[in-house]
Amino acid sequence: MRRWRAFQILVFVLPLPFGLNTNWTWPWVVAAVFWILGLELRGLLAFQEKKQLPNIVFPIAFTKALPLLGLLVLVQLWVIFQCLFGIALSPYDTQLEILLGFGYTAFFALSLLMIKNRKRLERIVWIVALAAAFQALYGSFMVMSDLEWGFFIDKEAYIGVATGTFINRNHLAGYLELSIALGIGLLISQSSSYYGTWQQRLRTLIKTMLSKKIILRLLLVIMVIAMVMTRSRMGNTAFFISLMTTGLLALLLMKNKTTSTSILLVSLLVVDIAIVGTFFGVDKLADRLQNSSTETESRDEVTRDTIAMAKTHALTGVGAGGFTYIYPAFRSIDVRTTRIYNNAHNDYSQFAAEFGLPASFALLVVVLVSIFWAISAMRLRNNDLHKGMGFAATMGIIALGIHSTVDFNLQIPANAFMFMLILSIAAIARWSPYSRKSNSANG
Fold first, then answer.
1. Residue 335 has what DSSP assignment?
2. What is the number of structural domains in the chain?
3. Rounded distance, CA 219 to CA 132, Å?
4. What is the CA 397 to chain-centroid distance, rounded?
């Protein structure tokens, strides 16, 4: 069980040190991922030898996701090729991306191997919910107390808005989008049916009030409060659009829906917007949305320039991780700000510019197949847990997909690791057998 506990701890601490957005933090996480993966593979090999099996028995979701894992490995091999053959225009940064990219790929594989039964799936969602609630409470407290710390040091920017232990409020919002999606998915999977006499309905209501669902719902409220307090325009927009879109898909596709599921989805929107937003600053967020202007920001121009970079190096890219040093050569004169752009405010254009179109398309295929599996889980699975996790993965992918049009959450290691977890849960929701028994190969 040691490696399972280590995996849970890893998932919890992912966002803590600045969202891993520093070169002294993420290598430790990558090293931990490879260490736990090595232990898990050794455990599977030992189980095979003990049971005298002809082959290692992998979880079904891992086996089904092997083509996606293969695509991810091919992309990382392409980044090595960029380095070896002089394609990378900033070789040192591309070398760092090789390590980070293999870390993401290994984490995807590790998630599929570790989350091998119902109990583990529920547990990892709870771990994410607790980690996100900590981020939400910490970020909200820092704003309301005027302490204004980031990762336990004074913040240099984004004073007056929630950032948690992240550097940028938009990246806390991105992390919360994925975490709230998982929490809602688990909540939906545990929705109760209020049938029978009034005594039976009252008994069901009391059991619900005393269950973990109430705790989970409170954690979700705390997360939504922090989401609003980030004042992240696209973060909040992406969250509510993804919730409405996925909710509609769920009502259309889910088998054996209960009335409580529909009520839950409606309450998430009404309660979170009308009540939580009223007391924690949705009006300020609305003002910020209304005052947004392309004349006061340069994101559109940077994205335009990044697309020009991608067109110039369409097949090969400029080298993964090289945006910071290559972008000035493509920077237009109408981008008047003196700031240094470490990333484009558009993940799609940055991936195309750094990796080239073929490799970027391979990454897109991984995401598209994952969301197809997630939607299929809502439509085809019979058990509530996998339907709920299909909802979670669909909502998470849609939310970050929308947010990525104007920001760079996938360039932030903590959020990229979380996104890989969401993709793995899409495969698990679609393909894993439903069993209340623990896998005998657990270690």
1. -
2. 1
3. 8
4. 7
Q: Could you give the C-alpha distances from 47 to 75, 136, 138, 172, 349, in angstroms and in order?
A: 31, 41, 42, 40, 45
Between CA 21 and CA 33, with CA 27 as vertex, the angle to 5 degrees is 110
Measured over the CA atoms of residue 194, residue 197, residue 201 and residue 203, the dihedral's sign is negative
| 226 located within any domain | yes
- Please tell me the distance from the alpha carbon of residue 305 to that of residue 309, in angstroms, as a whole number: 6
* CA nearest neighbour of 43 among 113, 106, 115: 113
How far apart are the C-alpha atoms of 225 and 215, rounded to whole Å?
Answer: 15
Question: Nearest to residue 213, comparing CAs of 221, 224, 203?
Answer: 221
| Burial classification of residue 336, based on how many CB atoms lie within 10 Å of its CB (0-12 exposed, 13-18 middle, 19 or more buried) | exposed
Domain enclosing residue 390, as ranges:
2-295+340-431
| pLDDT single digits (tens) 242-280 | 998 999 999 899 877 666 666 777 777 666 656 555 555
- In angstroms, the CA 80 to CA 38 distance is 22
Tokens standing for residue 354: 């750094």
pLDDT digits (tens, 9 = 90+) for 41-85: 999 999 998 888 888 899 999 999 999 999 999 999 999 999 999
DSSP structure string for 392-409: HHHHHHHHHHHHTTT--G
**pTM reported for the whole predicted model:** 0.92
Total residue length of the chain: 443
C-alpha dist (Å) from residue 122 to 183, 425, 443: 10, 11, 18
Distance in angstroms (rounded) separating the CA atoms of residues 411 and 21: 8
The per-residue pLDDT for 440 is 40
Nearest 5°: phi and psi at 235? Answer: -60, -50
Q: Which residues pair with 367 in a beta bridge?
A: none
SS3 337: coil
* Rounded-to-integer distance, Cα 344 and Cα 300, Å: 10
At position 88, the amino acid (one-letter code) is A
Hey, is 149 helix, strand or coil? strand
Instruction: Tell me the helices (H) and strands (E) count for the chain, helix number first.
Output: 19, 0
> Is position 315 within any domain?
no
Q: Which of 235, 232, 233, 225 is nearest to 272 (CA)?
A: 225
Contact 185, 391 (CB under 8 A): yes
Confidence of residue 389 (pLDDT cuts 50, 70, 90): very high
Position 214 confidence tier, pLDDT thresholds 50, 70, 90: confident
304 falls within a domain: no
Place 7 in a pLDDT band, splitting at 50, 70 and 90. very high
Q: What is the distance between the alpha carbons of residues 395 and 127, in angstroms, rounded to a whole number?
A: 19
- Is residue 238 assigned to a domain? yes
